[in-house]
Amino acid sequence: MNEDQEKKFEIKEKAQSRWARFYLFVKIKLKKFFQKNNIFKKQKTNKEFDHEMVNKKLIYSLAPSKIPSFKQLKHIKKFLSSKEKRWINIAILLIIVSVSLLGWGFYKNNLETVPSFGGEYSEGLVGTPKYINPLYAFSDVDSDLSFLIYSSLFKYNGNGELEYDLIKDYEIKESGKTYILKLRDDVYWHDGEKLTANDVVFTINAIKNPDFRSPLRSVFSGVGVEKQGEYTIKLSLAETYAGFEELLTFGILSERIWLNINPENANLAEQNIMPIGSGPYKFDTFSKNKEGDIKEYHLIANEDYYNSSPFIEELNFKFYPDFYSLNAALNNDEVEGISYISSNNKKNVIAQNSINFHKLFVPQITSIFFNQENNNSLKSQNFRKALALTMDKDDILNDVFSESVRNIDTPILPENFACNHDINAYAYNIEEAKKLLEEDDLYIQEISQEDIDKMKQQKEEALKEEESKEDNDENNQDENSDENINNEDNEIDNENKEETAFEIEGYDKLKDLSESTSLDLVGKWLYKENDEGERNYQTLSLTIVDNQENKELANKLSQAWQEIGVRTIINFVSSENIQSQIIEPREFEVLIYGQALSFDPDPYTYWHSGQDLNIVNYSNEEVDSLLEEARVILDKKERTEKYLEFQEILHKEVPAIFLYSPLYIYPQNKKVKGFNTESILKPEHRFSNINNWYIKVKSKFVL
Asked: Containing domain of residue 85, as a range?
């Protein structure tokens, strides 16, 4: 073996020795680890006899059933390790949670909450009931109670749409002059008797009878009524009227009860306070105060109501002398709702979070009317348009009324089928307004306080110089001619000063006008020059009902119009005198006034030249023709076209500026559910869907 081979052998031996030592080390460590953790524990040899296992097999072979019984399962814990017990408990918990979730999901998807009969609702009203009778019920209190107790031929739903009430069908004949109404045969009076055609015929004849003195008489004076069967009546009209169905929303009286009552004394009958109707609620009791006025009125649900019967079992009405007391009653929890609240008083309600403030659309429009006969400036279409363009309506209405009104641009409300939504309202545009005025040779003169002060100062200086000159003339009467020449030169200088003095054109006339009208002299004045070059300054007299919101509105309009130099004299009139002192004699130049409309779009009474309620005496032959034709057309589409054209003409000629429509705010405790009314014609129509209101609920299982 040479040296190289010896070295290789030695290296190989050393390597093997190192691997042997490493293997031995690992083996020892693994053995200790397995021993410590009982891994690969040596099993019993066949030579060892396992008595326990043999006993178990013997018992199992002799058992009548191979499936453990409940008694046997109770002992299972004895045979389980702690780890096995823990895993079994976890599995059981998961099973319980899973079943619970499945059960809850099934419950949620198949069990629903529905309204249940019961509960009581109390509401406060201003006034006291006197005539709970459709023939006389024209106060808000009487109308509210009458609406709940009596039924009508047609009624309005919560969206202001006309629908059947007592009738189940009807047909129109003879081009709209004959109506055949077929009544329901399942309607009963609150005392259990059936309602028939006799009751409808009696009610209409009572309205027409002058002895009953019903305010509805003028509406039905030309309507004939005839019974054609136990549940059929015929109505005959002298002239076709497209909105006739809307007139058939009055309550129906029982002939059996009212026939023997003298018509002349009908308003004194006890049935006016203890009525028997066929509506969703019926009279129960009332109580009076020491003065004999009714202080509370109690109604109960009519469970035999022919439509879906009400859910709320009892209604209790409490009466107060004014809205201040009414609002206090709501804050003191005396009532759960009140008939109406103003936007200002709404802020004073304490329990805001427990009250729903329902904001309902009402068919009313407040407008700015221009009486062209009392102010020559208003005869100009450009001038009227300029007034409209100067108003930022959205800002003005929001500042004054907040959320209690909505902006209106046409004489027909937006939700009405005949509203012209394509009309471009006069948006705020001062520059356009000035251009229109210049076309009429109207210009703006502006007076600042600095100009007035400057002019007064120059006049004072001139007066002092004149006084000084007079003194010098007296002292220098005997001086030589050279001094006289100097005085003459001074006079010439003074004359030159007077010629160059600052003057405000028309100042004296404006000052007198300002003092006589109590208008501030400083500011812009609109004027027009006559043939002699004299300036005639334009002012407007604005008349409005006296209340806080109207004062703010009038001031806002006055400030807006002053931007184009139109100065406004504001005239406040009480609501009691506005009709007799202002509207009937047409004693106004500009008037802000509200008009009540109906859900039918017909504006004939307000804009036809032959109508007394046309308060600006507006006259346009084309408009007259459109309105006359539209009110007798039964086809809805054709009728709408007439009203669209009518609105375009009014928008162009601007006989008025349509301002806003108020919102009726109805506060009601949140415990009452199911209120979904949006539009009302009258305050009592807030109860349009009262049979859907509910307080109590129950669970109903649905598969």
From this structure: 51-112
